[in-house]
Amino acid sequence: MPTLFSWEFAADPYPAYAWLREHAPVHRTRLPSGVDAWLVTRYADARQALADQRLSKNPAHHDESAHAKGKTGIPGERKAELMTHLLNIDPPDHTRLRRLVSKAFTPRRVAEFAPRVQELTDRLIDGFAARGSADLIHEFAFPLPIYAICDLLGVPREDQDDFRDWAGMMIRHGGGPRGGVARSVKKMRTYLAELIHRKRDALGDDLISGLIRASDHGEHLTENEAAAMAFILLFAGFETTVNLIGNGVYALLRNPEQRERLQTSLAAGERGLLQTGVEELLRYDGPVELATWRFATEPLTIGGRRIAPGDPVLVVLAAADRDPERFAEPDTLDLSRGDNQHLGYGHGIHYCLGAPLARLEGQAALATLLTRLPDIRLAADPADLRWRGGLIMRGLRTLPVEFTAHSN
Prior knowledge:
Radius of gyration: 21 Å
Strand content: 5-15%
Number of strands: 10
Distance between the termini: 53 Å
Structural class: alpha+beta
Number of helices: 16
């Protein structure tokens, strides 16, 4: 039985997940937080579990003490009264709240946002192109989705750097003390409440204005729900994209023949390989290692194992997306892979609402980097790179690169 959740495991969890898929596909284990949970690792079981209505997202169904419940979500969200968001609720509330925000993420709305994402992408690269080196996490993958989601929510430009600082605290404390994260969550909660009040007097075309309009038109969105919704869109919408870009660039730098294919395709003005490539990068080393918490509301069976009411269930997306029963040569990166029904954005009613925006940001980031910095290369030994601790997300702390410096 391989050791789970060590630093060595974090660097490359895939061999351990392969062992679990084969020998213990639904496995009960004690997590670093002290909570016992079931890990689901095979693709067929994972897909079934993600869509199973008997697995609730509501932490109230957890069978452990209130003390342990604080260990299963985002640090500080309970105290900050930010629990009523899409990752923690079930139908019918989930259906109602999701309907309200889904309008902001239609393909049309996201397409309208594309020029702004491209402008942000270019501006960030301008900031380091003349230097010949950069840390792609802190200077590129991290600020891009933060500024994009702030624009989408309607956070004024002059406040966006505060948001960047709070979000940075959340990321930096990935495996460290939860207190730092909780403080950032509280600051964000206070700010969002004030922003909702300010926007009532001057509604715009942004997402927070849309939430206020909806609640004013009888949709009964409480202020807590509006703040929680804005918070989770920020929280879920930025760290996933940081990791998509970071893990994606890293995978391309480690697979030079695939990276060359993509650069050739982009130079020819084609987009097809970029689109299938981003999906393959999501499958191969995606930003979300484990789907967010689920709790059994009644006895059920997954992969032949009996799950008791109140038991936490964690679907291991990283394991499912490398299941050889579903994907040919799953440990090989193939940017042109077809029929790529990966679970990187989830499945079922909790399928990632922001997937169109994440795809847009991932495609813009990779295409622009590879086009503007064609000889970009890793500036560190892969063995020296550190992955952020934490259970749900998978992402690098830093990604040092070098390239031929050029003025813009």
